[in-house]
Amino acid sequence: MDAETRQPGARRLRVAYLMSRFPKLTETFVLFELLAVEQTGVEVLLYPLQRERTETMHPEARVLLARVRGNRIFDARIAVAALRSLWRRPRLTLATLFELVRANWGSARYLGGALAFFPKALWFAEEMRRDGVDHVHAHFASHPAAVAFAIRRLTGIPFSFTGHGSDLHRDQHMLREKVEASAFAAAISEFNRALMLGVCGAEFAERIRVIRCGVDTQVFRPAPAAQVEPSPIALVCTGTLHEVKGQAPLIDACALLRERGIDFVCQLVGDGPDRRALEQRAASLGIADRVRFLGTRTRAEVAEILRQAQIGVAPSVPSRDGRREGLPVALMEAAASGLPLVASRLSGIPELVEDGVTGILVEPGDVFGLADAIERLAKDREHREQLGRAARERVLRDFDQHANARELARRFAQAAGR
C-alpha cells in the first residue's frame, strides 16, 4: 500500500510507533524509518514510553514533538485510565497483567519494566482506540514490545515489533509470547532471526522475517574522488561512547598505528558515559592529538564527516553486562558513504561487512587485528576504494531505507486487513 495505490477518499492506514524514548539522538534508525514509512502514504502516530529530555535533537525530530502522545511514565491521566480499565473490564485487565508477570518472572529488568509501564499501556490502549490506530509497531523486543503485546490483548489492535541487539541478546524472557501474539516480528539480520527462531521454535519461521534497518543513500553518499592521496588518513567511528561500541580497543590500536608510522586521525562521533575514561586513555597513550572526540552530531553533520573520511570503523565487543550490537546503523552510513569498513566479526555485522569484499573483519577486542586492518587500508588506496565501492553497492541492494520502509508498510497494511 502506498500513496499512489490507495483508493481515492479512503482513510490512510494509521500506525502507532511505540518506542522506549523519543526523541533519542542515537536512534536515528527509528526516526528516519518512521518518516520513510510516512512517505509511503501511512499516517504515523508516536507513542514513546518515556520522553527524552534533551535540547540536542535532529531537526526532523523537533518537527514531530507536537505529535507525541504522553510524556511521563505516570500521571493523573494514566491513573484515571488504569482505574477505568479495572472498572469496565476487570478480568481482561488483570489477566493481561498476570500474563506479563508470568512471562517475565525470573527477569528483574523485564518484570520491573512490565509493572512500571502497565498503567501506561492501559492509557495507550484508550488513546489508540480513540485515535483509530490500525496497527502498532514497537521498536525493540524489550519493554516496547511488551506494551504492544498488552495493547493487543486489551484492544485487539494487531502489532509487530523489530528486534535489534541487546534487547534480544541479553534476555529472551517473554520473546516467544510476543512473537506468537504478533502479526509479524522483524529481525534486522539473519543472525537475529536465527536467534529468535532458536528461542521461539521453527513453527514461527513465516512470522519472523528479516526486515533490515536502512539508511538514506542520498543523504549518505560518497564524496567526489580526491585527486591526491589524503593525509592524514581519517578514520571515523560513530556511536555512543560505551564499552559495547569498542572505542577502548580502537584507541589502543591507534597507539600501535602511531608506533608504526601511520599518518592518521581517528574521529569519534558521539557522546556517552565512557567519554572521560576514553579521553584519559588516549592521553595516557600519547595520542590525544590523533584521537578527536567530536561529540553528538546531527545526521547531516555525520554525513559530511563521513564524506571527508577514508575508513569507517566499528570495533564492537560484547560488554561485561551481556550487551552486544546487532548490526550498527553507523556501519551502514559509512558504507553508503563509500567507505571501506573495519569491523568486528560479531552478531549480524558480517552480513554487511564481507571480509575482503566490503571491508575487513577482526575478532572482537583484537587490538593488533584492528591495527593491522587499518594499516593495510591506509597504505593501499586502490584497495580502499575497491572495498568502498562494493560497500555502497551492498547498502543500495540490502539496506536502502526507503525500500525497507515500503516492505514494512506493506506488512502493516496486510496485518490491518487493508
Describe this structure in words.
It is elongated, with a radius of gyration of 22 Å. The longest helix is centred in the N-terminal third of the chain and has 24 residues, at 108-131. It folds into two domains: 14-214 and 400-415, Glycogen Phosphorylase B (Rossmann fold); 233-398, Rossmann fold, CATH 3.40.50. It has 418 residues and is an alpha/beta fold. Helix 3 crosses helix 5, helix 4 (90-104) runs antiparallel to helix 6 (143-155) and helix 5 crosses helix 6. It has 16 helices and twelve strands. The protein is 45% helix and 15% strand. The strands form two sheets. A six-stranded parallel beta sheet has the order 2-1-3-4-5-6, sandwiched between helices. Helix 10 links the parallel strand 7 (233-238) and strand 8.
